[in-house]
Amino acid sequence: PNETIEEVRELIRLADHEAMIVRGKDGDFQYFYGSEEKRKGQPRSFFLEPYDEIVKLCWSKGRRRESRNLFIERFDCRPQFMSFEFNCRTSDNVELILEG
Questions:
Q1: pLDDT tens for each residue of 14-23
Q2: How many CA atoms lie less than 13 Å away from 88 in the CB half-sphere?
Q3: Of the four listed, 2, 28, 73, 100, which is most buried by Cβ atoms within 10 Å?
Q4: CB-based contacts of 40: which residues, under 8 Å, 6+ apart?
């Protein structure tokens, strides 16, 4: 009856294959991992401190990277493959399209 809730914070839990970057109030970066071998004593689950924020990276999508609307907060550290396409020119000015 005499207690009041000041603030509700979400508990951030990382799976074994996930990683996250947090920017502190002083601008320094902290890296959190879900994997036991990468954690080095850091917790797998944590709350954000006041004025800390999760770093979001803006990535390109598509074969030719035409849209930049993929925002990533949690990084999947498992091996992944992506397709690519690059245009380049040889020394005799022949244009090549490299796909993979």
A1: 999 999 999 9
A2: 6
A3: 73
A4: none
Q: Cα 69 to the chain's mean position, in Å?
A: 14
CB 31, CB 21: distance < 8 Å: yes
Is residue 16 within 8 A of residue 76, CB to CB? The reply is no
N- to C-terminal Cα distance for the chain? 64
pLDDT in tens, 44-86: 899 999 899 999 998 887 666 677 788 999 999 998 887 778 8
Task: Please compute, for residue 70, the number of CA atoms within 13 A of its CA located in the half-sphere on the CB side.
Answer: 9
The tokens for 74 are: 């949690």
The span from the CA of 14 to the CA of 33, in Å, is 7
Any idea which residue has 């990084």 for tokens?
A: 75
Q: Identify the bridge partners of residue 74 per DSSP, sorted by sequence position.
A: 20
Give dist(CA 43, CA 13) in Å, integer: 9
